[in-house]
Amino acid sequence: MAKSVVIIGCQWGDEGKGKLVDLLTDRVSAVVRFQGGHNAGHTLVIRGRKIILHLIPSGILREDVLCVIGNGVVISPSALMEEIKMLEQQGILVKGRLKISSACPLVLLYHVALDRAREAARCKQAIGTTGRGIGPAYEDKIARRALRVGDLLDESNFTANLREIVDYHNFILREYYRVEPVNYDQVLEQTLELRSNIDHLITDVPMLLAQIRQQNKNILFEGAQGAFLDIDHGTYPYVTSSNTTAGGASTGSGVGPLHLDYVLGITKAYTTRVGYGPFPTELKDDIGIHLAKRGQEFGATTNRPRRCGWLDLVALRRAITISSVSSLCVTKLDVLDGIESLHICIAYYYNGQRFDLLSDSKILDRCEPIYIELPGWQEITAGITEYDQLPHNARSYLQKIEELCGIPIDIVSTGADREQTVVLRDPFAI
Ligand code: GDP
Ligand code: IMO
Ligand code: MG
């Protein structure tokens, strides 16, 4: 039976989704991105060779697999072209393997200008966005004025609509934010120049995916960002502008919800966050610094240092619920090697009361984590591929996560490389 597996981040992004998508792509015919844009940074390491992808699905390193970008993704034509070029320079074939929905909204220069102007105007309340124009591009989509990939096919209409949109956004840039407007001719020229590289990639994505399923072939859906960056379910307003939870795989690709068979939720063995916003288990002490250093916690898109802290099971359990996560993959276990005592947050204190569940993310920055303590391990787990070879305390740590989350761990990652993985259960074989 064909199976569709959705991979999503269960924290604040950068859980290691790219690594897992690449690993599991050998089981599928297509990998589908369904939300986000080039704010994502997904790292793939294959026998020491590192590639960071932003827009192109992480299946691209496996030949014969289709890489599909669904309608839920916002596309910067220039970022897409740059990425295709980077891959082709490395000998990776992209042409003929990449398919894009005509309904993807375009991210253009004025979105970037607006993103940056808004962040600057917010001062201390800044979100800490990636500055890629993602929020403003989704705003245009919801306001029903976005230019979409399919619009590139009709040059005269595109030219006229672009004029109107540029005028509208330039008014806001000039009159409200008091910053430089964008140059219409430059946006038009740049976009039309890239058009000939994009128009042949346009496909009816829902029908393509339905056909693949009818042919009894597996599909992998690749989430970007993570549960608490979700526009509806995340730590609003410190979120991204799309639905990062599993339901987004359906609306963002045109595959009905009954055809999503399994959700693999990715979590680090600890927690990280880039940008501003609440983070109850954040560590500003030596252990936080140690995690950042050992885990090389720098953003794959902006290179900003990631904030680090202990694993938060209140948050993780919520992520599991809102995305009906079937099982977990725990990444970066090796980063915990050598830490004497490990903490896992199992509840919060707020206003003198204990909460095992949390519904209001607005109070998150005033919640005190309640921890359980577990003994660490001194052995090296980096590169281990067999569960039995993991130190006893590492297995106890993983078992505790399973017990407190109520779902199994299918996969454990012990290093950045594709091979450095323990597969306990294959999501496509269950
Ligand atoms: P994504 O956005 O979820 O795909 O994750 P990123 O690529 O932004 O960040 C994850 C980082 O951790 C990357 O640098 C990966 O190469 C690295 N990584 C993934 N899994 C592991 C692991 O198990 N151990 C270690 N040490 N690094 C890992
Ligand atoms: P991947 O797919 C981590 C964060 C930004 C900021 C907020 C809003 O690699 O996990 P945006 O530019 O989207 O408007 O920024 O979301 N953010 C991410 N953090 N990983 C990501 O993607 C992210 N994409 C956006 O740092 O806090
Ligand atoms: Mg990332």
TrEMBL record:
A single cellular component GO annotation: cytoplasm
UniProt entry tagged with the keyword Ligase: yes
Keywords of the record: Cytoplasm, GTP-binding, Ligase, Magnesium, Metal-binding, Nucleotide-binding, Purine biosynthesis
Cofactor(s) named in the record: Mg(2+)
Keyword Transmembrane helix: no
Enzyme Commission identifier(s): 6.3.4.4
Active site positions: D14, H42, K141
Binding sites annotated in the UniProt record for substrate: A300, T301, T302, N303, R304, P305, R306
GO BP, sorted A to Z: 'de novo' AMP biosynthetic process; IMP metabolic process
Broad class of enzyme this protein falls into: ligase
A molecular function (GO) term: GTP binding
Cofactor note: Binds 1 Mg(2+) ion per subunit.
Subunit (UniProt): Homodimer.
Annotated function: Plays an important role in the de novo pathway of purine nucleotide biosynthesis. Catalyzes the first committed step in the biosynthesis of AMP from IMP.
Protein name stated in the entry: Adenylosuccinate synthetase
Organism in which the protein naturally occurs: Candidatus Nitrosoglobus terrae
